[in-house]
Amino acid sequence: MKLKQAEREVIESQIAKTEILAPFDGIVGLRYISEGGYVTTNMPVATVQDIDPMKVEFSVPEKYAREITDGTNVTVKIGDTQEEYKGVVYAVESKVDPGTRTIKARAKIPNRRETLIPGSFAKVELTLSEIPDALVVPAGAVIPELGGEKIFLCQNGAARAVAVKTGIRTETGVQITSGISANDTLITTGLLQLGDGKAVQISNLQSN
Question: What is the pTM of this model?
Answer without folding.
Answer: 0.54
